């Protein structure tokens, strides 16, 4: 073999051996790093734990896991005794680590009672596919409560249908029996809920019960905004059907008082002072002004005035517009206007 052919062969062999050595060194370093990794004990859920459910021994287990920065040391729990008997503050899925932030404060009562804030009450309302936003509402969502009911209108014997937002920014505590969000994949297997439990301020509880008794409750899901208004929206049939909207009627966007509240205020006002006329909330009906007729006698006093009498009829007593000029005394046959009209004349041009 020639010397020139041996030199490239030796160079290739040397490069290959060097590459193999680098690979072996890298593998040894990785193995050494894995063996030197510190392991810690952690508590892991053996099944799904619902929010505000008391944790038992069968729900958790102790496992050894690599120490990492994803779970701070102050949040770790190493013994089962620290977890058993506590109440979960949120839903903990199966095989997920149980951290201190996932537990409710010590002494929290399990179940719905433990999640009711001070000054609030849990109230359930009926829902269906329409009033429950197609069953898209989940525990923890925020909704507005709307009531649709029939009330006594200003016309005796007739009813008026109204809809009004009675509660704003109300949190949903449970849907049916579920107090936690259910996975969307299993929604088809779960029977649709017929009720929603809301966390309502104590003073709003009677209002919600009365609305649910007299009308139909509908829930409107809120977005990320938390703004509320002091003048909740309302609507009646006049706002839906233009033919029922009278002239000068107010719309909800104008911030006016709903008609049923106006009627209630009028009723209370009449009981306090019956000397005042009852206000209907509508513009007062003005009676049409009657024509005003002036008799003009031409000739001397005491003389024969037959045929010298001229009747001038004005539009009304305060108008100078002449709508009729006729001769002679009025008779039953000529009681209607229109014998001879002259709309171009005014009171200033009439004979004196």
Question: How would you describe this protein?
Answer:
The chain is α+β, with helices and mostly antiparallel strands and 352 residues long. The chain has 4 domains: 1-35; 39-112, Type Iii Antifreeze Protein Isoform Hplc 12, CATH 3.90.1210.10; 116-238, no CATH class; 292-349, no CATH class. It is built from 4 helices and 11 strands; from the N terminus they run H-E-E-E-E-E-E-H-E-E-H-H-E-E-E. The protein has helices spanning 3-36, 205-214, 237-240, 259-272; strands at residues 39-45, 60-66, 120-126, 142-152, 159-175, 195-201, 216-221, 234-236, 292-297, 309-314, 322-327. Strands 3, 4, 5, 6, 7 and 8 form a 6-stranded antiparallel beta sheet that branches. The protein has a 3-stranded antiparallel beta sheet with strand order 9-10-11, with no helix packed on it. Strand 4 (142-152) and strand 5 (159-175) form a beta hairpin. The chain is elongated. 14% of the residues are buried.
């Amino acid at each position: 073999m020639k010397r020139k052919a041996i030199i490239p062969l030796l160079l290739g062999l040397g490069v290959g051996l060097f590459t193999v050595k680098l690979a072996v060194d890298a593998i040894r370093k990785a193995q050494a790093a894995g063996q030197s990794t510190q392991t810690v004990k952690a508590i892991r859920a053996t099944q799904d734990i619902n929010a505000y459910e008391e944790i038992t021994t069968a729900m958790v287990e102790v496992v050894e896991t690599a120490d990492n920065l994803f779970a701070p040391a102050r949040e770790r729990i190493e013994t089962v005794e620290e977890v058993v008997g506590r109440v979960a503050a949120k839903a903990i899925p199966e095989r997920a680590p149980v951290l201190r932030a996932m537990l409710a404060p010590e002494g929290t009562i399990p179940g719905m009672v433990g999640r009711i804030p001070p000054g609030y009450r849990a109230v359930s309302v009926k829902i269906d596919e329409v009033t429950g936003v197609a069953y898209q509402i989940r525990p923890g969502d925020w909704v507005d409560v709307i009531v649709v009911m029939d009330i006594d209108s200003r016309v005796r014997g007739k009813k008026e249908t109204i809809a009004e937002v009675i509660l704003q920014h109300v949190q949903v505590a449970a849907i049916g029996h579920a107090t936690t969000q259910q996975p969307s994949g299993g929604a088809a297997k779960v029977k649709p809920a017929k009720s929603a439990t809301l966390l309502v301020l104590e003073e709003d509880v009677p209002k919600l019960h009365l609305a649910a008794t007299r009308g139909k409750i509908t829930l409107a899901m809120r977005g990320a905004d938390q703004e509320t208004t002091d003048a909740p929206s309302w609507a009646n049939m006049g706002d839906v059907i233009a033919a029922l909207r009278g002239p000068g009627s107010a719309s909800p966007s104008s911030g006016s008082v709903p008609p049923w509240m106006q009627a209630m205020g009028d009723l209370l006002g009449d009981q306090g002072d019956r000397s005042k006329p009852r206000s209907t909330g509508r513009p007062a009906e003005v009676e049409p002004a009657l024509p005003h007729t002036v008799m003009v006698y031409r000739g001397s006093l005491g003389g024969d005035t037959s045929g010298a009498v001229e009747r001038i009829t004005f539009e009304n007593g305060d108008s100078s517009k002449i709508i009729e000029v006729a001769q002679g005394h009025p008779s039953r046959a000529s009681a209607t206007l229109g014998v001879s009209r002259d709309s171009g004349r005014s009171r200033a041009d009439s004979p004196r």
